Amino acid sequence: MRFLMTTKATDSVPDETLFAEMGKFIEELTASGVLLATGGLEAGGILVASAGDEITVTDGPFAEAKEAVAGFALVEVRSKEEAVELARRFRRIVGDGESVIQQVFN
């Protein structure tokens, strides 16, 4: 089962300890074959919206930047419970904030 795990932006500034712990976590997940892709996302982005025949394109940043996704990980695990446990481990490393887990259907 594949899951997309996303995390929202926070005001906290990462330090060397966080980078080291996250590096170990990513290395472990990569070595085990669980982590398929990971990355950070630009703060602004581009919004493409459609209504009927009209398509509008708006450059960010947007007013609700605190709701924006700041990073992601695509993982392949045996169960939803395993995905939740990985997200728990991630949150313990990065601290306060929110992450969302969504199953990816093929």
CATH structural fold name: Alpha-Beta Plaits
Give me the secondary-structure category. Answer: alpha+beta
Distance between the termini: 9 Å
- What can be said about the biggest beta sheet? 4 strands, antiparallel
* CATH H-level homologous superfamily name: Dimeric alpha+beta barrel
Q: Could you tell me the mean pLDDT?
A: 91
Total number of domains: 1
Encode the helix/strand succession as letters: EHEEEEHE
Number of helices: 2
Overall geometry comes to globular
For the largest beta sheet, what order do the strands appear in spatially? Answer: 2-5-1-6
Could you tell me the strand content as a percent range? 35-45%
Rg is: 16 Å
CATH class: Alpha Beta
Describe this structure in words.
The chain is globular and about 45 Å long. It has a single domain, classed as Alpha-Beta Plaits, CATH 3.30.70.1060. The mean pLDDT is 91. It is 29% helix and 37% strand. It has helices at 16-31, 80-94; strands spanning 2-8, 35-40, 46-51, 54-59, 69-76, 99-104. 6% of the residues are buried. With 106 residues, the protein is α+β, with helices and mostly antiparallel strands. The protein contains two helices and six strands, in the order E-H-E-E-E-E-H-E. The strands form two sheets. A four-stranded antiparallel sheet has the order 2-5-1-6. Strands 3-4 form a two-stranded antiparallel sheet. InterPro entries: Dimeric_a/b-barrel (IPR011008), YCII (IPR005545). This is YciI family protein.
